[in-house]
Amino acid sequence: MKSVTEETRSILLEFQRTEITEHAIYSALAGRLKGPNRDLFRRIAEDEKRHASVWERYTGVSLSPDRWKVVLFVLLAMVMGITFAIKLMEKGEERAEKNYGAVKEAIPEAAEILREETEHEAALADLIDEERLRYMSSMILGLNDALVELTGALAGFTFALGSGKVVAMAGSITGIAAALSMSASEYLSQKSEEGDRKPLKAAVYTGIAYLGTVVVLVFPYMVFDSPFAALALTLLNGVGIILFFTFFMSVVRDAPFRKSFLEMLSISLGVAGISFLIGYLARLFLGVEL
Q1: pLDDT above 70 covers what percent of the chain?
Q2: Cα–Cα distance between 39 and 65 in angstroms, integer?
Q3: Are 82 and 179 in the same domain?
Q4: Please, is 222 exposed, middle or buried when counting C-beta atoms within 10 Å of its C-beta (0-12, 13-18, 19+)?
């Protein structure tokens, strides 16, 4: 064990725990991959283990991986994709890297380890290629269109029709028809373009994103008798979808979260507000009562 101050040792213990945990995460994810990605993840896992052993020489203790963190990131990789899980983990590591400056003078190896960590990020950015990311624009098309179009339609139906069950029926018919239309449009659009994306797959991704959004937005009208209570929950669900998807995009594309979230939120709620007013005026002037 090499001599360091207690303050430096506490920082190194944090580094050591992070490195040995990431060794376990990369090792677990390597088992789920094939080809060059597997080799890359295994190499990074060994580098992380070696980094942990360097810190151990200064801390004098052997640490075990954070098992809950390993399970969390493996589950995230299974559900959200490996790119999302790794980029989210690397963002946490970026925050830890700010402490490297505090130990560079006391620990000669710190600069070399920081350089290798930066190389890892570059290698991962160049090599990871997931199908869901290649078709991300198709998913965005379906989700954005469903949010803007269906929140607006449901808001208009709420005041025009006045019955939760009737709004649910009208919203479901509108949503399913629009999902099929969007899928067909995406298929034709991709077929007319030259690229590595398959038109049918692009159409399926668009349709699934649209239909998934339809289910989340229409569901409140199936459980609430009051259409206005259902509309409130629908709008809340819409905000949740926007929040979730914007966060996902900000991680995998290293994009600013706040600007994208506020832009998408203002468009969806703005259209909903205008549609609600149209529904009110339609009911007022046409005299329709259900």
Answers
A1: 81
A2: 21
A3: no
A4: middle
Q: Average pLDDT, stretch 264-272?
A: 77
Which range of residues forms the domain containing residue 215? Answer: 132-286
The residues near 264 (Cβ < 8 Å, ≥ 6 apart) are: 144, 147, 242, 246
Q: How confident is the model at residue 100 (pLDDT cuts 50, 70, 90)?
A: low
Q: Which two tokens stand for residue 75?
A: 């589950």
Q: How far apart, in Å, do the first and last CA atoms of the chain sit? A: 80
**Residue 167 · residue 227 · CB < 8 Å:** yes
C-alpha distances in angstroms, 252 versus 14, 88, 256?
A: 26, 8, 11
Residue of 113, 93, 95 whose CA lies nearest to 103: 113
Tell me: do 145 and 242 sit in the same domain.
Answer: yes
Does residue 33 sit in the same domain as residue 110? yes
Closest CA to 52 of 109, 131, 103: 109
The amino acid that residue 129 corresponds to is D
DSSP per position, 242-279:
HHHHHHHHHHHTT--HHHHHHHHHHHHHHHHHHHHHHH
- Whether 267 and 195 map to the same domain: the answer is yes
Q: Give SS3 for 241.
A: helix
